[in-house]
Amino acid sequence: MERLQKVMAHAGVASRRGAEALITSGHVKVNGEVVKTLGVKVGVHDRILVDETPIQQEMPIYLLLNKPRQVVSTVTDDKHRKTVIDLLDGAVSERVYPVGRLDYDTTGLLLLTNDGELANRLTHPRYEVEKTYVAKVQGIPTNEQLKQLRVGVLVDGHKSAPAKAKLLSTNDDRKTAIVSLTIHEGKNHQVKKMFQAVGHPVMKLKRETYAFLTLDGVSAGDFRQLNPEEVKQLKRMVTDKKG
């Protein structure tokens, strides 16, 4: 048995606090009865309705996917492009969705889950979950430009948070460079806009790590389940901080 608001959060209805607000304002029924009291516990056989819409209780599942290029990080796509759900190829019966997004032409590590509460926390800026990207950029960044990335650059009128930037290699003939950038922000096109701000447009981009997770052993287009210890570690990362 689990608390009702936790079950709702896991189902992706809302955050834990959002679920509590739905309960206390009378939007939730359990087995046909309106529930307004927090702390009510429910089991897998209880029928839960939110505004008369049933939610499905499923076992939580956590996947690490290596996203290839030309795949969208959504459950469905109105342009009929391949989605990350298509890559699962029916191997997962639970309804999962991406934690955040990677651009259509960006590759690398993407988490998928049906644990709405954890997904909300991982993408919330206050928890500062670090992601490392490796970018191939036009031109060769100078030490001063790398320093600018580290202290923050203007992105859509706002200064980006401090980042970790490292020049990995250069190709003097082609005038390109490979740079790693570690950030904890997740705004739209964040990494591309940061490199653009210092005059080095991104040619290719890959997310190599998400927190402590890596792509080791997972080929492009493949996925694996997180093990219980990895899930616990992720949850600890986003519950130790208050706010």
TrEMBL record:
UniProt keyword annotation of Plastid present: no
One family name in Pfam for this protein: S4
Keywords: Isomerase, RNA-binding
Domain RNA-binding S4: 2-60
Cross-referenced InterPro entries: PsdUridine_s_RsuA/RluB/E/F_cat, PsdUridine_synth_cat_dom_sf, PsdUridine_synth_RsuA/RluA, PsdUridine_synth_RsuA/RluB/E/F, PsdUridine_synth_RsuA/RluB_CS, RsuA_PseudoU_synthase, S4_RNA-bd, S4_RNA-bd_sf
Any one annotated GO CC term: cytosol
Superkingdom classification of source: Bacteria
Enzyme's top EC category: isomerase
GO MF, one annotated term: rRNA pseudouridine synthase activity
Record-stated family: Belongs to the pseudouridine synthase RsuA family.
Cited NCBIfam families: pseudouridine synthase
PANTHER family: PSEUDOURIDINE SYNTHASE FAMILY PROTEIN-RELATED (PTHR47683), RNA-BINDING S4 DOMAIN-CONTAINING PROTEIN (PTHR47683:SF2)
Protein name (database record): Pseudouridine synthase
Natural source organism: Secundilactobacillus kimchicus JCM 15530
